[in-house]
Amino acid sequence: MSPDRTQWPAVLMAVGAGVFAAFQVGKAPVALPFIRAEMGLDLPTAAWVLSIFALMGASVGSAMGTLVTRIGSRRLLPMGLGVLAVASLAGGLAPSFSLLLISRVAEGIGFMLVTISAPALITLLTLPAQRQMAFGLWGAFMPFGMAVSMAAAPGLPWLGWRGLWLAMAALLAAYALWVHRSMPRPQRPPQSPGSHLLADIGATVKAPGPLLLALAFIPYSATYAALTGFLPTLLMERMGVSAGEAGLMAALAAAANIIGNLASGPLLRTGVSRRRAMAGAFLVMLLGCAGIFQSWMPPLAAYGLCLLVTGTAGLLPSCILGAASVYAPSINLVPVALGLFMQGSNLGQLLGPVVVGAAVAAWGWGAASAILVPAGLAGMGLALSLRRAGKET
């Protein structure tokens, strides 16, 4: 199913929803030092503020995809934004660390609803020839949203992390209302006869490609979450910069990811296969992570490597998410494939900061390389394995 023309204003509105959802990922790293100071937390414990956000997505992402196929992406998009708004409000008012973590789980549910329904909606709003370009824009939602929210770091000393949470709640509520009123209603694909949740998931997992792509999302998101999540702390400890300066430098590193996102469409149009583009990005990731965290690496050089890694790695989410309509068994199962991809992404977000945080606490920053380099190697292997799936790789 395709529309008569690509509805670019609606595509940009859907990308904007992703950006507002990504604000909730980016606000945590810059707020982490302030949360630790207020609640007296060590680094491994505080890392759960970063990781637990991804708990529900890592557990039931593909099931949420089937929810989108039944309720419709147009309905669920503003609902997901609303869930994020309520959860951010609750987190800003949370009197204890445990309640803050519960609110982050709720934010993760809203995030998943947005990040599955928005790309599913983009699929229905675009012509096939322009779909990869649209997904290049969509792939930038995470780094752009994270960078914007991280840029709030200089204001945290007077705004406070709670003020940031409450401000995010107000912005999310306003955007949810706008999407509810203004998003067009594309024609929904027909449901397959006898379709049900387990059958949809089973058909998607058994198809060649979706499971490999979902697994490839794990090492990418684990590395990206660990890099951007701990970069402010690393910069403050290694370079002696202030919290505000570290937040801005981390925002730039997160934003560098947009370069790869936007480059994915033109790169694939030149004839470079999806699997080779992904394998090349993973190679740069593992080589960069071998040096970023080492004590012998000059701090400015380590930061430069971080920019290189996040910029090149931006090819991965666009390549993976743009493949949903290619590898899904049918157009009505695109949301299920997207849910499976986001399940892999969230599993990486869940594991990356916690595992790296525990390793750094036990053995120092250099231990992060021992985790992230093998992750990049695994990603390369998964990307190259796409050759067996055929299609256009």
From TrEMBL:
It holds the Pfam family MFS_1. Residues 10-393 form the Major facilitator superfamily (MFS) profile domain. The keyword Endoplasmic reticulum does not apply. InterPro entries: MFS (IPR011701), MFS_dom (IPR020846), MFS_Efflux_Transporters (IPR050189), MFS_trans_sf (IPR036259). Its main location: membrane. Coiled coil: none annotated. This is MFS transporter. It is found in: Cell membrane. Keywords: Cell membrane, Membrane, Transmembrane, Transmembrane helix. It is a multi-pass membrane protein. It comes from Paramagnetospirillum kuznetsovii. The chain crosses the membrane at residues 7-26, 46-69, 81-102, 108-127, 134-153, 159-178, 211-234, 246-265, 277-296, 302-324, 336-356, 362-386. Signal peptide: none annotated. SUPFAM superfamilies: MFS general substrate transporter. One of its GO terms (cellular component) is plasma membrane. GO terms for molecular function: transmembrane transporter activity. It comes from the Bacteria.
